[in-house]
Design goal:
Strand content: 25-35%
Distance between the termini: 26 Å
Number of helices: 3
CATH superfamily: Peptide deformylase
Structural class: alpha+beta
Order of helices and strands: HEEEEEEEHH
Bound molecules: nickel (II) ion
Radius of gyration: 16 Å
């Protein structure tokens, strides 16, 4: 099932998501639907809040290509437990802020702790695009968007653009 994706300026995106008790059948089916939604978009990561579900759930697949089989990472209650001092810059985008890309600086490596699809505690060391993606998605769970890292001027201008589009649709 493909969920509709929520875009800015919807205030839902600013909500803090709640931890899940455990990854059971119900949570797993949400994660599977999120993955389907992410691939259809297409995108490389999706947080549950982007489809209006206030649970700490994330799906990521930074490596998917036409030739490779889809293997989404499912994460429940993901938490960054370590970040490198070294930073790197990626041009980020977000399914909730369509067609807007900007360079963002974040720790270039991180370690994430999460519950996997079998409700097992896992640790994953991330670098490159995956490290950026993990941090971007976990930010969503705390109501944070990548545009929050931009200068106030840039952020306000992109927000204004979306508010205008939103009003035109309404
Ligand atoms: Ni995003």
């Amino acid at each position: 099932m493909i969920y509709p994706i929520i875009t800015i300026p919807d205030k839902v995106l600013r909500k803090k998501s709640d931890a899940v008790d455990k990854v059971d059948g119900e949570i797993l089916s949400i994660l599977e639907n999120m993955a389907e939604t992410m691939y259809a978009a297409p995108g490389i990561g999706l947080a549950a809040i982007q489809v209006g579900i206030t649970k700490r759930l994330v799906v990521i697949d930074c490596e998917h290509s036409e030739e490779k089989k889809k293997s989404p990472l499912y994460m429940a209650n993901p938490e960054i437990v370590w970040t490198s001092r070294e930073l790197s810059v990626y041009k980020e985008g977000c399914l909730s802020i369509p067609e807007f890309y900007e360079e963002i600086e974040r720790p270039s490596e991180c370690r994430v702790k999460y519950l996997d699809k079998k409700n097992k505690v896992k640790f994953l060391d991330c670098d490159g695009l995956l490290a950026t993606c993990v941090q971007h998605e976990i930010d969503h769970l705390d109501g944070k968007l990548f545009i929050d890292y931009l200068s106030r001027l840039k952020r306000t201008s992109i927000e204004k653009k979306f508010i205008k589009q939103y009003k035109q649709k309404a």
